[in-house]
Amino acid sequence: MCELFAMSSRLPTTIGLSMGRLASRGSPGGHLADGWGVACYDGRDARVLREPEPAADSPWLRFIEGRRLRGHIALAHIRHATQGGVALANTQPFARELGGRMHIFAHNGMLPGIEQILGADCRRFRPVGATDSEVAFCALLERLAPLWAEGAPSIGARIATVTAFAATLRPIGPANFIYADGELLFAHGHRRTQADGRIAPPGLTMLRRSCAVDRDTLPEAGVAVEPEAGPQTLCLFASVPLSDEPWRPLDEGEIVVVRDGDVVAA
Fold this sequence. Notes:
The protein is α+β, with helices and mostly antiparallel strands. It has one domain (3-265): Aminohydrolase, N-terminal nucleophile (Ntn) domain (Glutamine Phosphoribosylpyrophosphate, subunit 1, domain 1), CATH 3.60.20.10. It contains 5 helices and 17 strands. The chain has helices at residues 19-26, 59-67, 114-118, 132-144, 155-169, and strands spanning 3-17, 36-42, 45-51, 69-78, 94-98, 101-108, 176-180, 184-188, 192-193, 199-200, 205-211, 216-218, 223-227, 232-238, 248-249, 255-259, 262-265. The strands form 3 sheets. Strands 1, 2, 3, 4, 11, 12, 13, 14 and 15 form a 9-stranded antiparallel beta sheet that branches. Helix 4 (132-144) packs antiparallel against helix 5 (155-169).
């Protein structure tokens, strides 16, 4: 199954990801055959690195693990293909420009028939690949585009739009997603295939930290966090808990909105 990870921090944070260990948290053995992707914001722009190849044999991923990424917001996705072939165009996270900044989206779940339900809405933003996840992203951006026509919209307007859109996805199928616009990070928890085979909540978990700024490696999870000096606030999201800390499962249909590591709405 696909795995999601996201981070928002008050201070710029250097993050290292081991996709193999990250994937193994969600499914023993870590299914990595269908691709992986990482996005990290640098101001309004974002580095987006994707590859439709097994992570275990990827020299790119070994470079990323050693190079590490730095920013306030980072997202990662490990793909288990359910719709669309194994190809770069179908590899998440997806990125598009809107309002003079990059918007990033990653989804975990299955949205059968979304092309018939929402595909006609995709006019300015059109899928490059053949996944239900990208159709969802394009349809979301179509709804957000009027808000960004004259600069950054209010936080309330963005939250209302994303919340209404998530409500349209849930009847279609499991709709866990992470969405970022360079300022805000949105996490929507729904349903996920659990260890016993049931499709049920939770679909995402979150962890909030206010901590001293020592190098921190989440035990065995493949995530290394190295903040700069000073008081730090972090908010982490993952498909399953990545440590023995008190990760909170998101309620079915819950959306958590984070800015600079602090929750602004839930």
